[in-house]
Amino acid sequence: MNDDELRDELEFHIAERARLNQAAGMPAREARDAARRQFGNVTRIQEEARRMHAGEFLESILNDARYAWRASIRVPAFTLTALFAIALGVGSSAAVFSVVDRVLFRGLPYPHAERLVSFGMAAPIEPTEFILGADYVEWRASQKPFEAITTWSDLVDCDLTDRNPARLSCARVEASFLPTLGIEPLIGRNFTLDEDRPNGPTAALLSYGLWRSRFGGSPQVIGQSVPLDGRPVTIVGVLPSSFELPTLAHADVLLPQALDLAAQRRPDTGRVMRGYARLKPGVTIEQASAALAPLFQESLKWVPPMFRREVKLRVRSLRDRQVQDARLASWVLLAAVFSVLLIACANVANLMLARAAGRRRELAVRVALGAGRARLIRQTFTESLLLALFGGALGCGLAWVLVKVFVAIAPGGIPRLDQATLDARVLLFALLASMLAGLLFGLAPALSNPHAESLTGRRTVGATRGWFRQSLVAAQIAVSLILLAGAGLLLRSLWNLENAPLGMRADSVLTASITLGRQSYPTPERQQAFFEELERRLSGVPGVTALALSDSLPPSGNTHSMIYSLIDVEGRARAGEGTGGMVVWRSVTPAYFTALGIPITRGRAFEEADRQPDQNPVVLGASLARRLFPNQDAIGQRLRPGRSGPWRTVVGIAADVRNNGLAEPSAPEYYVPRHHTPDGATRSANLIVRSPLDPRGMSDWIRREIAALNPTLPVTVESMQQRVGKLAERPRFNAVLLGLFAAMGLLLAAVGLYGVMAFLVAQRIQEIGVRMALGATRGQIARLTLSQAARSTAAGALAGLLGSFFATRLLRTLLFQAPERDPLSLGIALAVLLTVALAAAFIPARRAAQVDPIEALRQE
Amino acid sequence: MPDSLQGALDLLILKTLARGANHGFGITLHVQTVSAGLLRVEEGSLYPALHRMERDKLVAGEWRVTDNGRRARFYKLTPTGRKRLAQAEESWTAFSKGVAKVLRFA
User: Fold this and answer.
1) Residue A765 · residue A859 · CB < 8 Å
2) Is the confidence at residue A210, as pLDDT, over 70?
3) Is B7 an interface residue toward A (CB < 8 Å)?
4) For residue A391, how many other CB atoms are within 10 A of its CB?
5) Which of A79, A333, A366, A465 is deepest in the core (most CB within 10 A)?
6) Res A466 pLDDT > 60
7) Cα–Cα distance between A676 and A663 in angstroms, integer?
8) CB–CB of A166/A196 below 8 Å?
9) Which residues of B fall within a CB distance of 8 Å from A52?
10) CB distance from A49 to chain B under 8 Å?
11) Torsion, CA A462, CA A463, CA A468, CA A469, rounded to 10
12) Which ipTM did the prediction report?
């Protein structure tokens, strides 16, 4: 029954009564008035009926919400501050959640992904697990723990060579690859076993992206033949758009692995592959690892005895394989934003307590009028939830901005960051976070509801309440200090990282990385000719101090490497067990050392004459020289890396250069000259130019010169400083984010401290007046107020110090050459915190000192 | 016991409607007349009670035109309401008997 009908029903009743009254002899008007009077309150009946229909509970909640709304807009300063705090807390949490959700929580795009594992051996030469073809064949035949087992080989460049050539990225996978992952092609079919044999029919699966961009998304492509690296290949299927390789690498085309079983045992044709498997239901990773151990021991027999101890079996979940080191950083960030959220909650709880104190009379009146305790508590929670939801909505706006900022400033290589968006999951998280926050900060005022007696008493600020509010402030300060300490530590580590000596002079150096195409430069001769020509064109130009070519560049870790124990030294027995770790080597032109500013500490650098094919000198890095020839002069010694090839004579020793990224310890290193003959030719090389001239003009010139040789070559020109800077991007990103959250936490804590102090001063104005009247000086009053602030700050700082001892342990593996308990960064964090706290307490203290005792006492 | 007292209004309404469908005003008139003016049903209680009973499916309401040509909402007993009436009459009789005994004893 709707409102109109209800009114009709009641009007009918009144009219009938009036008719009866009239019949009894009353005048018409009087009869109607009497009827209405007798009927009583129409509105009340209507309300009661409405309540019956809408449900009484909902109705009163709406009432509460209306009431809360009116109460909130009456105190805009309180409401805005609270909304700001919640928005900051919820917004930053939601933004970080949207980033780390993909890394930590969200399911991988495979059915029953929790049963997918990556398995293989890890060795110094390749720390990411791999499996050799021969071992794989054995394991596949006799493994027990897996329901399905498969491999793929790392990505290689491949060229689509039709009318409009394109460089693609191809991966070789077994026919069992897609079924093991549980993926079906979008259209077409998977490889057949026949296609997965050596010299079987050709077959290719296209990625969704390539299919759409290159083939217009037409289903007609199935069965078409495309030239891949000059060979026609038949397209058999298209992968779904959601498909991703287990490593998250991007592949345009999947080709059959076509494993030649017979060839696998021979070392020269054996293939290095990545193994993936699906666990049988109920089998854990540990059980699988134990079950594979006998097979692993069998495979170890093929490993040269000296290396066996350093090869390990590894089985780990697909997620672990994907996120690698991003996991810890993600947890740290998540913990940091939750801390900010907690601080925001404590802050709003304090604000609400302050407001509750101001509304004591109003609430007491409501109690006196019969509002039950439960009713008032519900009212408080309605208010806090309403605040939380509004704040959360604002927070979602903030999160949207923050995610954009994260993605913009983030370096490459953070897994799945590009997929971070505010989707339903993140919004749900924000909703839950705000509800939880609302409950948290509603709890404090709800638990301290007033009684009707407060009406009679004069201001009786409970001592307990003051204590509670101060401990909330102390908690905020403690959490802020932990955040500050963590951020300080990461910043210190970043500083160390960026200021660690590189062993070379990175200023005024430009580098250009050039990779020649397989099609245009198929032979070593052609490749060699290109780089020789390039060198000739560029050298001897005025303004270029030094110009060199090399196959790799420090300080990144992408270099050739060699097992230490495979370096033979003339006149010395071969070393016993163990690989001795890895040794980095580079092939460089003579000017390499000058161009990069690497000092030659003994002997000489290479000379032009060393580039003749019969010349085989070697320059050792200082640490390799020390290790190979501990108590000898290395110059003139002869050695043979890799136990084959020519003996090389040591002609010089170069200072050590950081060559394994910025954070990892450097490897020993040696250099060989880049010969003028095709034997040293490579498809890619780096041009190094040292010049005092303007780098922009210089880099244009380099591009022009390269374009003059071949205008279609993709070239990346970067200054050495840019290259080095890139290597510190990940730690910088972590440090910047944590610093940002620490700053937010500190700001909130300062606002909280200020609020509490201002409130306490306002409440004690009369007391202060009395004290002043009794002779207290302004200084004493200020000290009195400050000491109160100092107590909560000190308590918070102490708790924070304790907490940061535990929290910074979490950061241990993210640190570079910084101790996890770093007194310096902790001290600075403490100093920053205390300064901000003092500043926040100073304003109320000054106000307290400026109280006019006469004014204050007159208020009595 | 308060249940029984509160139930008295329901009982009066149900009993009245047992004679045939009637509107709210008719119910007050009937109770007043039959009880010879001893009982008066308050409008402020009657309508909420009627609406509650309608929600609980004890009575069913419909719009009809009265003898003198006015639109009024008529209520009639549902089968559930009839059953409830029987129960209520029984418990009321028991209740009033009990009260009478106590009164006589005291």
Assistant:
1) yes
2) yes
3) no
4) 27
5) A333
6) yes
7) 35
8) no
9) 48, 51-52, 55
10) yes
11) 80
12) 0.88
